[in-house]
Amino acid sequence: MYFALEQEASQPRCGPRTLLIFALLIFAPFCGPFRKALAQEGPPSISAEQRDQLYREISRETESLRSQIGLLKKIAKVVRPSVVHIEINGGSTRRNRFPDETGSGVVFKRGGKFYVLTNRHLVRYADLDEVTIRFSDGKETRPDNMWHDAGTDIAVLAIDSPQSVPARIGNSGSLEIGDYILAFGSPFGLSHSVTFGIISAKGRRDLELATDGVAYQDFLQIDASINPGNSGGPLVNLSGEAVGINTAIASTSGRHEGVGFSIPINMAMKIADQLIEKGKVVRGFLGVSLDSRFSHDAAVRLGLKTPQGARVTGITENSAASRAKVLPGDVILRFNGTWIESDDHLVNEVSMTPVGEPVLMTVFRDGEMIDLTVTVGERDVDNR
C-alpha cells in the first residue's frame, strides 16, 4: 500500500518497551553462548608492527570518509534554512473536522516574491489562518494565498517573509539511478530532519496513492528514510539543489520500509509556476485513446523490437491528433523530443506541454517512422 506522508500531530514517545528492546540488542552478545565464545577466542594474534600499520591505514581511509561526511554536513547546513515545518491547526471538510497534521515544505522565489512548495494532501482542506509555517530559526508566519493541483499533489503557499532563504532549484531530468540524495522534512513532527540515500528508480507512474486524484505521476523512487510528516519536504542532490518533493511511501505498516517516492522538481516547478501565474493548471490535450496493455508481443507483431511507446486505439474528432493526421494503430515513439516509454508517460508529457505550442511527434506506422507536427490543445475533460 502507498501512503501519503502527512503526520497527525503528536509528541514522539519512547516507552519502557522501546528501551527494553534497545537494551536487549546491546547486551545480548554478552549473554549465554556468546559470552562463552568470546572467552574462548583469546587475544588476537597480531604484532605491534602490524597493529601500527593498520592504524596508519585506518587514518588514511578515515580522512577520505571525513571528507565525504563533511560534504553532507555542508549540504545540510546550506539547505536547512530553506526547509519549513508546516502545521495544520483545525482544518475542516464539509462533513467534519480532521486531526491536526504536520508536514514540510521548501521555500523558493519567483518575481521577487517568496513561496513555499509542498504537497496538496497536507493543506487541501485548510484555510489560510489554519496553516502555520515555521522556519529553521523558529520564526513563524502564515500564508497570504494558497493554490493547489489535485492532478500532481502539488501546493504553493505565498508568504510575506523578506528574510526567507530560497532553495536552489536543480534539474531532476539529470538524475540517474544510483545518485546520492538527501531528504529533508519533519518525520513524526520532528522538524528539519535529514536522511541520506540513493535514487532507486525513476518514472514510477502507476502508484495507487492513499490520497485523491493524483493522475499525473512520474515519481522518483528513493531509499532515504521518509515517514509521515515528510510530505512536501525537498529531495536534494549533492550540489545542494532541490530535485524533488517527497510525497509518499510504499509500506505494509504505514512507516518507512525503504521505498519512498518524490515528485521530480521539474514537474513540480512547472505546476507551481502555472498556479502562481494563472491560479490553476492548464494542461495540454492531444485527443487520443491509448492501449494500456500494449505488450512486447504486440510490439513484435507490429515490427518494433521493444514495447516502447504508446499505441493509439482511437482519435477524438476535431482534436490536435486528428488535425495532425494521427491514425489508430500508430505507436507514438517520441513527443517533443522525449522518447515515450508508455501510455502514462505520454499523458504526462502532453499534459505539461504549453497549449497552442506546435511540437514534433514521431510515430511508427506500417513499419516506418513518420514525423508529424501537432499543435497541442487544452484539456477540458478527463481524456488524452
Q: What is the CATH C-level name of the largest domain?
A: Mainly Beta
Proportion of strand residues? 25-35%
The tally of helices reads 8
- CATH fold assignment of the largest domain: Thrombin, subunit H
CA-based shape: globular
Estimated radius of gyration: 25 Å
Based on the structure given, which CATH architecture of the largest domain is correct?
Answer: Beta Barrel
- Give average pLDDT, whole number: 84
What's the β-strand tally? 24
Largest sheet data: 8 strands, antiparallel
Total domain modules: 2
Helix content: 10-25%
Give an overview in words:
By secondary structure, the protein is an alpha+beta fold. It folds into two domains: 241 residues, Thrombin, subunit H (Beta Barrel), CATH 2.40.10.120; 95 residues, PDZ domain (Pdz3 Domain). The protein contains eight helices and 24 strands. Strands 2, 3, 4, 5, 6, 7, 8 and 9 form an eight-stranded antiparallel beta sheet that branches. Strands 11-12-13-16-15-14 form a six-stranded antiparallel beta barrel. β22 and β23 form a beta hairpin. The longest helix is centred in the N-terminal third of the chain and has 32 residues. The radius of gyration is 25 Å and the shape is globular. About 10% of the residues have low confidence.
Q: Topology, pairings included?
A:
Blueprint: E1 2-4, E2 7-8, H1 16-27, H2 32-41, H3 48-79, E3 83-88, E4 101-110, E5 113-119, H4 120-123, E6 131-134, E7 140-141, E8 145-149, E9 154-159, E10 168-169, E11 180-185, E12 193-204, E13 219-222, E14 234-236, E15 241-250, E16 260-264, H5 265-278, E17 284-285, E18 288-290, H6 296-302, E19 310-315, H7 320-323, E20 331-335, E21 338-339, H8 343-351, E22 358-365, E23 368-375, E24 377-378
Parallel strand pairs: 10-15
Antiparallel strand pairs: 1-15, 2-4, 3-4, 3-6, 4-5, 5-9, 6-7, 8-9, 11-12, 11-14, 12-13, 13-16, 14-15, 15-16, 17-24, 18-19, 19-20, 20-21, 20-22, 22-23
